[in-house]
Amino acid sequence: MEKKKVMVAIDESDCSHYALQWALDNLHHTILDSKLVIFTVQSTVDLGYIFASSYGSARTSLSLSPELVVSIQERNKKVAVALLEKATEICSKHQIEAETLTEVGDPKEKICEAVDKFNIQLLVIGSHGRGTIQRALLGSLIMVGIDESELSYDALIWVLENLKESFKDNHLFIFATQSLTTAVLPSLGLAHFHFHLSPTMDLISQNQQQNMKISLGLLEKSKRICAKHGVKVKTFTEGGDPKMAICKAVEEHNIDLLVLGQKSKGIIERALLGSSLSDYCLSNAKCPVLVVKKT
User: How far is CA 68 from the centre of its chain?
Assistant: First the structure.
């Protein structure tokens, strides 16, 4: 049976090495049964020109000589190699062997490409954070965001199976958002027509009550799953845009780690739909974010 693959993406920031250390401390048993990949990206060199502001406040376009381009490329490669060597040493202290990889390009694109190319089941990325990333993770507050998709329950089960020791002295937080009230006319044929209507207060109230029931049902299902694993939980729900509501809940409850489920998206789907909930939370949540991807 082929081993699962876990990838930790690192750069020169402290938070990326913190993410690696966190993974080794909290996912040790998972990593022992998996293949660990350490990945870093070498920045590209703009071959056309760079902007310099050394002449007063003016921005001057300077041509890059071939020698300078080569020098920058070599420097970036040395930095990448040094980062991977440092990461390998950290892994060795935990008796973990890691495969190291580096590519040149835009970090966001190259990391996503590597996940698809090497069939990574779990990607760990350090958040630049906003003051909370240095918290100790033992005894931490972990929150799982759930919705009606099976992916969110896959993420919950993954947490229960892999992070139980991290919150053994605390409750596991589970959060569900209630959808905003919208007015939608029934479909005609294959087309759906959405209109800006002024729904009555009764209709708004009915929709809100229905959304509340759905959220409470999701949370009850989560409680039953956690009970089977002997885990105590705290559940809560709020209305509003899921992305903003989750980030708000993270801040209000001083969450140390947010866990979300995510489905694989093709290039066209990403282009049409834009950033996903997990993409938004990775950029805006004030804590590290762990995304469990369904492969």
Answer: 36
